[in-house]
Amino acid sequence: MYKKILVAIDGSQSAYNALNSAIDLAKQFGSELYLVSVVNTANLPMNVGVSYAPGLTKDLQESAKKDLKKAVDLVKEKGLTYQVQLLDGEPREQLTRFPKENDIDLIVMGKTGTSAFTRVFVGSVTRYVSEHSDINILIVV
């Protein structure tokens, strides 16, 4: 039923709960998992004359790589097929665009991510994706 399952990884417990659900589905359907993390380079802090603190993007990418490695280790342990993708940009846009471009059958996301502050000012990534995607979505608590 689901050949390709995207799992949004942001380092939150909710994201790893979503990964566990996606692992169960992948075992059941023989699916390939797409472990995707998005470095939010669209909403970095601004300074006069400098768009963001030097090295901030690199730090965010390194953090995302660690989160993805943890996810990969969990998937490898189960012997499942997977791909890893680290994207840059606005997470809401990337997580609606990438699944369409890669023929994803199901998006699995945690209910809440890592940043309550960002949710208040930018809006929930999960909510946005659920409202703007035409692909099935499983939201995990």
From TrEMBL:
SUPFAM superfamilies: Adenine nucleotide alpha hydrolases-like
Keyword Cytoplasm belongs to the record: yes
GO cellular component annotations of the record: cytoplasm
Keywords: Cytoplasm
Record has Cytoplasm as a keyword: yes
Annotated family: Belongs to the universal stress protein A family.
Protein name: Universal stress protein
Species annotation: Companilactobacillus crustorum
